[in-house]
Amino acid sequence: MDQFASLLPSGSIGPVHTNGPSDSLHLSWLPTSTLKQYTLVFPVTEDGKICLGMKKRGFGAGRYNGFGGKVEPGETVFEAAKRELHEEANIVATKMPHCGRIRFAFEDSPVLMDVFVYRVEAWEGDPSETEEMLPAWHTSLPPSDPSMPQLPQIPFDDMWPDDDLWFPLFLAKKSFVGRVDFNKPPVAPEGSEGKMEDGSMRRWWFAEAPVELMQSS
Ligand SMILES: COc1nc(N)nc2c1ncn2[C@H]1C[C@H](O)[C@@H](COP(=O)(O)OP(=O)(O)OP(=O)(O)O)O1
Which atom of ligand 1 is nearest to 88's Cα? Predict the structure, then answer.
């Protein structure tokens, strides 16, 4: 279990899911020296709708994701999650349980992103476009389910590549922890435009975990 120590204090967690490719298990976790807190928030409804935002600028531009960003000095993580949701989607969360914590490292970056994931189950207002995000409703129900034929499925091909690893836990309302290390993205050819190339996932793990464990430092 020591390879997971970079995220967790001692405690019991559910079965651990790790990389498929066996050679990646020989790679070390990337070294980092600075832990930075971020939030990531997804509005969901009882009947299987989920609101994703198309990121218009900055880190992750061109991908769908939840709403969130850096925790500012003097804020709690919860306050930051509420603020970022309001700034990016124009809604105010009134019920927002903490449900996940994922750490991301990137080759040649000293920063370990410490991302706190929340599920927004009640809010005031309607999600609408902001400077940073264009919100759009999707369905988390299987395509065969006839109850919401007009909504698109969750667009994993247009999201961060780690998302389809932990979304099953998120959608099943399970709390979870994990870590993903990314290789450096390939250098974009000169003059190329559009979505930034992904770095491949170098090593990762996810597991169900009780909320208390997920909230410890
Ligand atoms: C690498 O894998 C990731 N996957 C997912 N799903 N989400 C990620 C990943 N890495 C980071 N994120 C999330 C965490 C945050 O919600 C945002 C990044 O925050 P951002 O850089 O946009 O922070 P802001 O404070 O809003 O930035 P500005 O200073 O530009 O306003 O991505």
Answer: 26
Q: For ligand 1, atom 22, name the residue with the nearest CA.
A: 69
Task: Give all domains of the chain, ordered by start, each with its CATH number.
Answer: 31-183+200-215 (3.90.79.10)
ipTM of the complex: 0.97
DSSP letter string over 83-150? HHHHHHHS-EEEE--EEEEEEEEETT--EEEEEEEEEE-EEES-----SSEEEEEEE-S-TT-TT-TT
The token duo for 188 is: 């974009």
List per-residue pLDDT tens for the chain, 217 residues long. 344 445 554 455 666 677 655 555 667 789 999 999 999 999 999 999 999 999 999 999 999 999 999 999 999 999 999 999 999 999 999 999 999 999 999 999 999 999 999 999 999 999 999 999 999 999 999 877 777 668 999 999 999 999 999 999 999 999 998 889 998 876 665 665 545 566 788 888 888 888 777 776 5
What does pTM read for this prediction? 0.90
What distance in angstroms lies between residue 68's CA and the mean position of ligand 1's atoms? 6
Nearest CA to ligand 1 atom 17: 69
